[in-house]
Amino acid sequence: xxxxxxxIDFSAPAVLKKxxxxxxxxxxxxxxxxxxxxxxxxxxECIRKLLAMxxxxxxxxxxxxxxxxxxxxxxxTSEHVSELARLRDFL
Length: 91
Description:
With about 90 residues, this protein is an alpha+beta fold. It has 2 helices and 6 strands; from the N terminus they run ββββαββα. The protein has a 4-stranded antiparallel sheet with strand order 4-1-5-6.
């Protein structure tokens, strides 16, 4: 990253959303075609809540927030969040 200092605002507003599911799989279309809000708070709160979910169910969740450079996109999947959480201690 040659001299660039990465900063992420973990106090930025964010929403943890969950996709409707059946037998631990996302349901497509049907009555509820979009994810619904579970937590409306900060990016840090949403990351902590997502990581507190059972690993087998995390794929049903995503975090919506304002993009921040290359590391934080507008919609982050559980895989992205796990990587960001690992980097948090170094940023």
